[in-house]
Amino acid sequence: MRLYTFRGGVHPSQCKNLTQGKPIEEAPTPKIAVIPLAQHTGAPAKPLVKPKDEVKIGTKIGDIQGRISASVHSSISGVVKSIEPRYSPAGITTLSAIIESNNKNEYDKPIELKDYDSLTPSQIVNIVKKAGIVGLGGAAFPTHVKLSPPKDKPVDTVILNGAECEPYLTADHRLMVEHPKEILEGGKLILKALNAKIGYIAIEENKPDAIEKFVQIAPEFKFKLCIMHTKYPQGGEKQLIKAITKREVPSGGLPFDIGVYVQNVGTAFAIYEACKHGKPLIQRIITVTGKVKEPKNLRVKIGTPFKDLIEFCGGYNGEPDKIIMGGPMMGIAQPNDEAPVIKATTGILVLGAKRKSRFIGKGKDSVSIFKEEVCIRCGSCVEVCPMGLLPCTIGDYVANKKIDRAKEYGILDCIECGSCAWVCPANRNLIHLFKYGKLILQK
After folding, report:
1. pLDDT for 357
2. 361-408 pLDDT tens trace
3. Which pLDDT value is given to residue 360?
C-alpha cells in the first residue's frame, strides 16, 4: 500500500515495545478523585455541586460557561468533600471538585437518548455537548464546538487520527486493536453531524495489528484506510491533512477553512459511547510507561491521582527523575505524582536518572539536561520543521524581544512539536521561546 507522509519531521526512538502488546486493563476506582473544572480549551466549567453533596457516576458537577467550554461529570460515586483550587497536570491551578468514594459504584441516569440510528445532526452535537466530550489527542478542544463549523464553511472530509506518533504512547493503538468497530461507528456519527461524505482513518505503519483490523472493516463503514509513514509529528492535524488530501490549511486558518475535520480515534470512540449508551466522558484510555515495574495501557477514571496508577503498575522501577503527562516530545513535566488524570491525559511517562545521551536515551527511559549554546545557523531546524518555518530566526527574534518580527515569520503557525529542538546541535530551548512569544502576542 502507498505510505502517506509530509515534508520535514524527525525519527526519535519509538520506545513503544513496553506496552504495544499489552491489552487495556481497568484501573481501580480511586478513594479520592480530584476533578478539575478546567480540563479543556476555553472557559472553566461552572461548579454545580457544593461540599457534602452526594454524587453518582456520571453526575454533572460542572456546567458550560461561554461559547468555548465543556461540562464536567463525576467519575465516581461518593460525597463532595470540597470545591477548592488544586494543581492540574496541564500546568495550572484551577478550581476542582474533591470527591470521596463511597464504594457503591452507583450510576446516574444516562444522557437522554432517542433511537441511536435515527439521530439528527443537531441531536448528535447536543449529546456530545451534554457528555462533556473534548479532543482526546491532547488538545482537549470542546468537541461540540468543533462539530459546529460556520455555515459558510461546509466540511466534506473527515479524518480519524490514529497515527499516535508520540514516542512511548500506545493507548490509541490498543483502542484501535480492541474496539475498531466502535471507533468507526463514532466516525459515522461525525460524518452525519457534519453532513460530510468522505471519511479516512490514518494509522502509522508501525501498528500492523491495528491496520489489519481496519483493512477488514473500514470499507463496510465507507472509510478509507490511509497507512502513514512512521515519522514524528505524523499525527499533527495539519500534517495529516496535507499528506492525505493535499490540501493546505492557510496561515492563521483552521481545517474547516478547507473543508476538513480531524478527530482523534479516542474521541470518536467517546462520541459512540455517548450516542449509543448515553455515557458522559468520565474515563479514558492512557499509557503508563517508562521506569515503572509493569508498564500498562489502562482505562482510567478522570480524577485518579497519578501515584495510584503508578502503584497499580507495580511502582517505580528505580528512582524517578522526571514524570511527564503525555509523551517526551510534547508532554508536560510534573512537579510530583500527586496530579490527577484529566481529559487531556494521554499517558504518564516516568523517566529515570540523568545520562549524557538525549532524553529518550536509545530506549533506556532516561532524561538529560543540556547546556544551551550559541546557534551556528546550521539549518537543521529549518529542514525538519513540519510547518516550513525558520525556527532559528523566530527564536532569535523572541530572545531579542522583537515579537512583531517573530509574528511576521510565522510564530503563530508553530505547532510546538519540538522537532526543531530535537535536532538542534546547540541545544537551544526553542519551544520555550515560541511559547513565550505566543503568550506575549495574546496579551
Report:
1. 42
2. 444 565 666 788 999 999 999 999 999 999 999 999 999 999 999 999
3. 43
Work out the average pLDDT over 140-151. 96
State yes or no: pLDDT of 180 exceeds 70.
Answer: yes
CA 287 to CA 298: how far, in whole Å?
A: 6
* Whether the Cβ atoms of residue 265 and residue 200 lie closer than 8 Å to each other: no
pLDDT value of residue 139: 86
Q: What pLDDT score does 106 carry?
A: 94
Q: Could you give the CA distance from residue 285 to residue 170 in angstroms, rounded to a whole number? A: 9
Torsions phi, psi for 204 (to 5 deg): -70, 150
Task: Give the global pTM.
Answer: 0.94
